Amino acid sequence: MHRQILKVPDHMFVDHINHNGLDNRKANLRPATRTQNNRNRRKVHKANFHSKYKGLTWYKREKRWAVRIMADGNSKFIGYFQNEIEAAKAYDTAAKKYHGEFAVLNFNK
What we know:
Layout: H1 2-6, E1 13-16, E2 29-32, H2 34-39, E3 56-59, E4 64-71, E5 74-81, H3 84-99
Antiparallel strand pairs: 1-2, 3-4, 4-5
């Protein structure tokens, strides 16, 4: 339905800005490439996740949070952080830089 509403060409995707695939109001839709659409995904919660924040992994040996982000098909290492909140903020900064308007942030600002 969202493809018909937005009338995007076959090679484009439709991104739901608010992450709700059932909200097909035109104001909530925007054309996107596959990469842009993937950037706008929320964190996937796995059974063994270490942080409630996107992009963070606890490294037991380092005793620090590692921050990584996918950009241009590569995993980019952002850094190590002692504090989980600071690590999540660092992820947000990187997400804005690499994903622009399609960035999914840990803290909505």
